[in-house]
Each structure stands twice: as C-alpha cells, then as structure tokens.
Amino acid sequence: MALLEDRVVLVNGGSQGVGAGIVRAALREGATVAFTGRRAEAGERLAAETGATFVRADLTDPEQVRGSVDQVVAAHGRVDSLVNAAGLTSRGSLLDTTPELFDAHIAINLRAPFFAMQAVVAHLVARGAPGTIVNIGSNCAHGGPPFLAPYSAAKAGLAGLTRNTAHAHRWDRIRINDLNIGWTETEGEDAIQREFHGAGDDWRERAAERLPMGKLGQVDEIADFVVFLLSDRSGVVTGSLIDWDQNVVGTTD
After folding, report:
1. pLDDT (tens digit, 9 = 90+) per residue, 59-101?
2. How many CA atoms lie within 13 A of 67 on its CB side?
3. Degrees (nearest 5) of the Cα angle 50, 218, 241?
4. Taking each helix axis from N to C terminus, what angle separates 112-127 and 149-168, rounded to the nearest 10 degrees?
C-alpha cells in the first residue's frame, strides 16, 4: 500500500525546490496534495504537471497562511498532514542585518509555520482526528555560519516550536517533527550562490569536492524522508529534531 493513501497533505512553499519535491513524492505515495506559493506562474505550472491543487498565498501574511488551510479544507474536505517547506536564505550577519531583513526571515522561516500549524492543529482537534506535521528546518538551527545570522535565529526558533507543539498535542495524536537539512541542491540555492557568493556554473561540482559524500543533498532524497515522517510507518515518533546532513553536529577534526 502507498504510504500516504487516503491522506490530504498541504505543503507550504511547494512550488519549487524541496517543497516541489515533497509535492511529487506525496502524490506518488497516494496522497491528495495541495500546496501554497507566492508566484502564480510557478504554482500553476506545477499544478498542471502533477494534478496537485495550487493555492496562491503570501506566507508573510498570517491571514493568508490561515486562509490557505481553509481553502484546502473547502476543496478537499480536510487536511491530515502539513509540511512547512517555505524558506528564506538571504544572507546577513549580526553586523550587517537590517531590521527589515531580520523581520523577513522571521516572517517566512518562523511566523508562517507557526500560524500554519495553528490552523491545521485547530482543524485536527475539532475533527478529533490524528495528524502529522513536518517542519523543514536547517542544520543552522545549531548555530550556522556568520553570514546566516537571522536565518539561524529563525530556524532555531522553529526547532523549539516543533518540540513545544509536539509535546502540547501528543495526546491529540498529532505528531510533529523537524527535519534539519543541510546544504541542498535546489534552484533557489543556485540563485543564492550566484548572487551572494559570485559562484559560476561549476559551483555544484566544486562544492561536491568538499563534501564527505561527494554531492550536495538531493531534493528527492529529502522528499522521501518527509513522506516517511508523514506516514504511519514512522510509528510514534514526535518532537524529534532530525539532522539530515553529512556533517556531524558537535564533532571536530
């Protein structure tokens, strides 16, 4: 049996990158899938390709975040699982981050997941139904490089939020976990490398040479792991912060 048979899954930030990979993997595993995104063209293109439902939403607006959950419930009758995959990785250190950049990171990387979870958990509790949530975190939650100060702060907050809400709703049988991913090959990462680091067309190959497994993290591998966490095959696990990376936190050479 497919892992997500008869599940309605909402993927926030699902129009590209890791989110789009999760949309495809969840569909493959039998789910009915809806996803949010800000850019209509990208969202409509993925919806046409996959048959998933696209809900256009600006996730910096809590009302649109909560409203997107209502739209999915109206379209499909319920939401069983949520993935918070939207992420902002614009660079900023402690010394050069503006209040505007800091607020942007908090809005996308922490506030949007908070209010999406609020809406989905309220819906599940009202139904008296179990559910699963996966937050796409980052290994930067453990500290991160100097040029990702606001991003690291927001992802650390998401890690704490995951554990808090998993504890609060364990008796509601709502399992909430956080997947702290490392450096991953996506369209967005390509743009970031070129804009902020002056990378050329060979940046992926050069990066791979410096990584233990000889490659960047791959979207399809992450998506398969997320599907497993959403499914019953992941058992009773909740409140877990899983480091999905090839560098081991806390170790040195």
Report:
1. 999 999 999 999 999 999 999 999 999 999 999 999 999 999 9
2. 10
3. 100
4. 10
151 is catalytic: yes
CA distance 158 to 84: 10
Between helix 17-28 and helix 187-197 the angle, nearest 10°, is 170
Query: CA-CA distance, 168 to 205, in Å (whole number)?
Result: 44
Q: Encoding tokens for residue 4?
A: 């997500």
pLDDT tens digit sequence for 6-32: 999 999 999 999 999 999 999 999 999
pLDDT at 193 exceeding the cut of 90? no
Give the closest residue to 131 by CA, choosing from 12, 226, 230, 10: 230
Amino acid at 42: A
Q: Is 247 helix (H, G, I), strand (E, B) or coil?
A: coil
Report the 10 Å Cβ neighbour count for 164.
Answer: 12
Instruction: Please give the backbone phi and psi of residue 120, each rounded to the nearest 5 degrees, phi first.
Output: -70, -45
Phi, psi angles (nearest 5°) of residue 199 = -70, 150
Segment 207-213 long-range contacts (CB within 8 Å, at least 24 positions apart) = 207/183, 211/183, 211/246, 212/246, 212/247, 213/246
Whether 139 and 182 have beta carbons less than 8 Å apart is answered as yes
Is beta strand 81-84 parallel, antiparallel or unpaired with respect to 131-138? parallel
* Given 35, 54, 115, 151, the catalytic residue: 151
The pTM assigned to this predicted structure is 0.94
